[in-house]
């Protein structure tokens, strides 16, 4: 079975002109991160922040953490901030153990992240 089929990625620009929402569902690992990378290639637009909705991600490995760092770097270069929303226990634990929770703005859900973007 193709591992890329086990993940769904949606890029949403409809909430705010200054925020890009990337919704990911499934397992985020070495086999599936290329699909996410392809979906966010060339993003975000100048000045836009990125909200990565992780509420439907039950597992992530080191390649997924590397992908999140790449998204953060691209967002920072574009003049925005990266928000991680709704991280489940395993994902949150991986972010904490690696101290990456200090790199990103962590939010309980997408609505809280949108509020942060609006008030920044």
Layout: helices, strands, pairs:
Blueprint: E1 7-16, E2 19-28, H1 33-40, E3 49-60, H2 62-77, E4 82-85, H3 89-97, E5 105-107, H4 110-119
Parallel strand pairs: 2-3, 3-4, 4-5
Antiparallel strand pairs: 1-2
Helix pairs in contact: 1-2
Structural account:
The protein is of the alpha/beta class and 120 residues long. It is built from four helices and five strands, in the order ββαβαβαβα. It has helices at residues 33-40, 62-77, 89-97, 110-119; strands at residues 7-16, 19-28, 49-60, 82-85, 105-107. A five-stranded mixed sheet has the order 1-2-3-4-5, with helices on both faces. Helix 1 packs parallel to helix 2. The protein is globular. The N and C termini lie far apart (43 Å). The model has no long low-confidence stretch (mean pLDDT 89).
Task: Give a quick precis of the structure.
With 120 residues, the chain is an alpha/beta fold. The protein contains four helices and five strands; from the N terminus they run ββαβαβαβα.
């Amino acid at each position: 079975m193709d591992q890329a089929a086990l993940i769904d990625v949606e890029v949403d620009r409809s909430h705010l002109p200054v925020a890009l929402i990337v919704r990911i569902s499934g397992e985020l690992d070495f086999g599936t991160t290329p699909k996410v990378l392809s979906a966010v290639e060339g993003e975000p637009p100048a000045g836009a922040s990125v909200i990565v909705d992780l509420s439907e991600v039950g597992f992530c490995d080191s390649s997924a953490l590397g992908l999140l760092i790449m998204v953060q770097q691209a967002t920072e270069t574009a003049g925005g901030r990266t928000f991680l929303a709704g991280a489940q226990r395993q994902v949150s634990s991986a972010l904490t153990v690696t101290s990456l929770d200090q790199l990103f703005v962590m939010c309980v859900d997408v609505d809280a992240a949108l509020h942060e973007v609006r008030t920044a």
